[in-house]
Amino acid sequence: MLESLKRTLCRLLGRGGSAERPSPRDAVAADAARNTTVGATTMNKITSIADVRRHFLNNKEPIYFISATNFNLLGIGDWVGNFRHINYIDCFEGQQRNVFVPKEKFPRDFESIEDINNYLLEHKEVIDFIQSRADGEKAGTAAFLMFDEHTEEVCEQLGLRIAFPPAALRSRMDNKIETVRIGNKAGVPSVPNVLAKVGSYQELCEVSRELGDDLVVQTAFGDSGHTTFFIASEEDYYKHAEEIEAEAEVKIMKRINCRGSAIEACATRCGTVVGPLMTELVGFKSLTPYKGGWCGNEMFAGAFTQEIRDKAREYTFQFGEALREEGYRGYFELDFLIDMDNGEVYLGELNPRVTGASSLTNVAAFAHSDIPLFLFHLLEFSDVDFDLDIDEINERWSHPESVDSWSQLVIKHTDESVDLLTAAPRTGVWRMGADGGITYDHYSYHPHAAESEQEGFFLRISGAGDFRYEGADLGILITRGRLMDDDFQLNERAKAWIDGIRGQYAGQSLQDPVVEEVAVSHAVGGGNFKIL
Amino acid sequence: MDDKTLHFRSLSEAVPGPKWRSLFDTHWPAYEAWYLAEGERERPGYLACLNALRRHMPELLPTYRTLCDLAGGGDLAARFLSLYQPPPYITGCSQAVLARAEETLLARNYDYPPELCEGSILLTRWNERRVIAMTDCLWGVLDGMNDGGLAVSLAFGGRKAVGDGFGAPIILRYLLEFCDTVPEAAEVLARVPTHMAYNITVADAAGRYVTAMIGPDRRASIRRVPVATNHQKRIEWYAHALASETLIRERQLSILVDDEATDVARLEAAFKAPPLFRHDYRRGLGTVYTAFYRPAEGRVRYHWPGLDLDLGFDHFPEEWVTVRYGVRERLGG
Fold this sequence. Notes:
Chain A is of the alpha+beta class. Chain A contains 17 helices and 24 strands. Chain B has helices at residues 18-35, 46-56, 61-70, 75-82, 168-178, 182-191, 238-244, 246-258, 264-271, and strands spanning 4-12, 94-99, 104-111, 120-127, 129-136, 140-146, 150-156, 198-204, 209-215, 218-223, 227-228, 287-294, 299-304, 307-312, 320-325.
């Protein structure tokens, strides 16, 4: 325990870390010692990974990640000077210095993450904070999970540059129908499908005759688990008819026996950098109430065959290059559906942004031996000229030894009940005992602080005083090792972690009808934004 | 029905400081509840408030920022203090200008629920001019004057329209902080948007006067009219007009002001008696106070039955005045 704490402190203070895993700052210090002639101020062109590290560690311009929580970019502050998270939820109870959360907040029924971000950017404390760190009219750079045109207007006024392509372009790329078309153009196949307007069950059957009668229908936009409909009968259709028929066009796919996977990449001017293929945890009833809803990822080299991994990486590279032709650049994520019957790799969907999987992509071994994928994104949106050998990086990152094993569970409240939380597990490192019970070990902000499979880093989302309702995010567990078995079912360790974390929550049922009405309205009225 | 008691307080503080802060601390809980009455989301965000002030009344920004800091620097108080898109509210009120060769008088009765009146009379020098004003929303103005010779007063305009703009008290504060004459004030009233219908009467030391009928949904009508009650041109909200007796009061005032025999004493007497003085406290339309501004002399008299408080730029004692409002009985000091 003491050693563990000391190591964590060392990392935080940047004074050298554990022998087996040097911190990024140490690595940069070593690089800097080798090359003292090139400093951030004199660096004209970035030509090596060491240059990138040094450039960002010496960064003076404020860089912000503005979102509901800092989950998606956990730990990026270790690599980037002057990096701050501006969040609505304080997952750290005030302990995390680079997380700014306005003190004065009102419980609102937010309609989306864009809505939260716009609220934050128009909040006086946030504006005062940003302006206090600004250099004249230049307030720095902002990154988001989600943003819209209004966010762009506000950022322009505040002098914040957005490190992403324009919202309008992102929105076009986010359209699942458009994704299929880009994929087809880039030679990246989708699951056999038709794109059509559907007005009735009969019409659905007619347009999809060649796909069989076991179908998956997706609408153009929407969160995982909310707009994917499994239709094998007329009865299934009528459950979702209203949503399907409201769309100008839907994607109708043949239902295949597949495994979900995710891969993140970054389209840069030097080429597309591709991260490792991850498995997806989808629709587990112990984690999410949404059928088909995303509830975590696993990263480990042996999840799929080398052939499948190579194919997915190749497709991702091709897709990234196609995105650049469309004018999109920067971070993106692709879902691939791996057909378990024939080994085919099919394009699922595109998320033109950082995602929930980014928290794993940016912590694995390859990210620390080189740089996290998100730094390529920041570099692409910086003013600095760079020329990096992307093929060499991709080659390195494709090796199984570059990928250590990490998993994450996104734990939602799955009951229909609504109550007020009176207790919640703290953010930090938790330890699992021999009996499967869990205890709090120590505070940390970084998943790496969980050093073995007996430890897990938990990021609390819902805390005491919050309402617990169906679909509410309770928290996220990140741990080393796998959480699914070879059949893609949750393993015993995962189940023990889920039970253990849930057991740390306690709620008080709502006696007062007025309070209950408010809570239900909060839950039903759109307050249940999800951590993506 | 129990009597209602209200404490009026005159306070002199040249630049915003501890006295203003104490006012904020006293009244903020009530204002916060009012501001949130329709839900926090219904009120514009801080950035929108700041932008609206910057666009329409930029000269007020330094004072606004100082007051926000004094109020603790928080988000909600700053939004409230901008008075941009506050919750809708209405008042009664009668006001009239008597411009005679020897002096100009702006008189007004403030008809409102006493428990909702802040009761603060502030003498300040925030932006070069000294200003004496009956405040609302902690720095807004119900009526007041500056040492440049301008006096202003507001009355609800008797219409239900609500739109994109400011609560009228902040517009009156802006007038007193940055205008000396009626033409200057008229220019401001023509361009600054209001979120509800108000009749604002302005008089200056030179004997000029106008009444601006402003609203969120039409251009301001600014005419050389010396009286205003609670309707704009024609009656649009009959229930309010009936309850507030706006036509009766307007007619009474018009007759008085048009009569060359009316002098200051006669107009003052009229404001102290029905139908201008109203006892309808049960419905929140009773007269809370009467004010008589003499902008050329820099003097004002606040009046309650049986009690007067005379203040001026050269004579401004800090005092407490306690007033009891009953349903039928006379007011007492």
